[in-house]
Amino acid sequence: MENDQGIRVLLVDDEEQFRAATSTILNRRGFSVTAAANGREALEKIRKDTIDVVILDLKMPEMDGNEVLRELKRLKPELPVIMLTGRGSPDIALAGLQEGLFDYLTKPCNLDLLARRVRDAFARRRQLSRQEHRVKDVMVPLTSFSSVREDRTLAEAIEVIMISFNRTPSTSTVQASMHRSILVLDPRHKVIGLVSFTDLLQGLQAPALSAPAGPAPANGPAFPTSGAFTLLSRDLGKKLVREVMSPAPITIDAEATLLEAAHRMLELKVRRLLVQDNGKTVGVIREQDLFFEMAMIIREQSE
User: Fold this and answer.
1) What is the CA radius of gyration of the chain?
2) What does DSSP say about strands 251-253 and 103-106: parallel, antiparallel, or unpaired?
3) In terms of DSSP bridges, do strands 103-106 and 147-149 run parallel, antiparallel, or are they unpaired?
4) DSSP code of 90?
C-alpha cells in the first residue's frame, strides 16, 4: 500500500454526514484530514494552515465551489483542488477546470478513486515543486544591496549609490539595476524602507512647485527660474534619509513559489518584494528576477 502519511487534505463540504464519514475513511488510510463546513471557513484554514490538497464541494450555500476556487487560487495558486459535483453539472465543473482545477469527481464518488486522485494531485505538486525554483532561489541576497541608516543625510545616501555604480561592471545590466535603489535600515539593522531615483526626484518636486515661479509656460505648471535645480539639490542633500524614503516593500516567504510572487506583485501593483526566512529579511525579489526565470524556462523548452 502507498504511504499517504503526511498528505494534508482539506475537505470542504456543507453536508455534515458526508464530511464526517469521508474524513474518517481518509484518516484511516493515512491522510491527515481537516474539514471545513463552508467556503469562508475553508479560506480561513488555507490562510493559516499548511494544506497539500483540497477536496471541494461544488454546491454550497453563501459561496459555491467555483467562488471558493477563484479566491483559493488567488491566495495559493499552486494548491491542487479536486472538485466534487452533483450529477448533471459537468459544465459548471468544466468552468472550474479553466480556473486551475486539478480534477473533478461526481458525488457520490468512489473513495478508492478519490484517495488515488488525492495522491496524484499531491505527487504532481511535489514534482512541480522539485522542478521549479522557489523565491529564495532567484531573489537577490540582502548582502548584494547597498544600505544606509535612516538617520543619515541624503548626501551620504547618494555617495553610497555612486560607490555601488562604480563597483558594478558596465556590462552587467541586471547587477546595475540593483543599485537604482538602496535599502534603509533602522538602528537595529531592520529594513524599514528604500531610497530610489524616483524618491530623490520627488524630493525636489515639492519645494520646486511651491517656490516663486518665473513666467508661466503655455502648457504645464510654472517652475522656478534658472539656478533653482542646483539650489534645491543642495538643500535635498541636507535632508535625512527618513524624510524622503519610500516604505519597505511588502514581504513574501522565502519558500513561496514564483507564481505566488508574480500574483502578489500584480495584485499589489508593486515591482519588488522583501523576502523573509523565519521572520528575518534575507533578500529582495524583483519583477526582472521573475522575467529572467521565465526567459530561461522558455529557452530550455525551445532547445
Assistant:
1) 26
2) unpaired
3) unpaired
4) H
* pLDDT tens digits, 186-220: 999 899 999 988 888 888 876 655 555 555 555 65
Q: What's the pLDDT tens digit per position in 278-297?
A: 989 999 999 988 998 888 77
pTM of the complete model: 0.52
Q: Where in the chain is the domain with CATH 3.40.50.2300?
A: 8-129
Of 152, 147, 131, the C-alpha closest to 283 is: 147
Beta strands in the chain (DSSP E): 8-12, 32-36, 53-57, 81-85, 103-106, 140-141, 147-149, 181-185, 191-196, 246-247, 251-253, 272-277, 280-286
Query: Chain-centre distance of CA 184, in angstroms?
Result: 21
Instruction: pLDDT band for 169, please (50, 70, 90 cuts).
Output: very low
Predicted confidence band of residue 23 (pLDDT cuts 50, 70, 90): very high
Residue 258 pLDDT exceeds 80: yes
Positions of CATH 3.10.580.10 in the chain: 137-302
Confidence (pLDDT) at 175: 46
> DSSP secondary structure string, 24-66?
HHHHHTT-EEEEESSHHHHHHHHHHS--SEEEEES--SSS-HH
Cell of 195: 531610497
Give the start-end residues of each E strand in 150-236: 181-185, 191-196
CA gap 105, 123 in Å, rounded: 18
Q: Which three cell numbers stand for residue 27?
A: 484518516
CATH superfamily of 137-302: CBS-domain (3.10.580.10)
Protein fold of 8-129? Rossmann fold (3.40.50)
Q: What pLDDT score does 1 carry?
A: 40
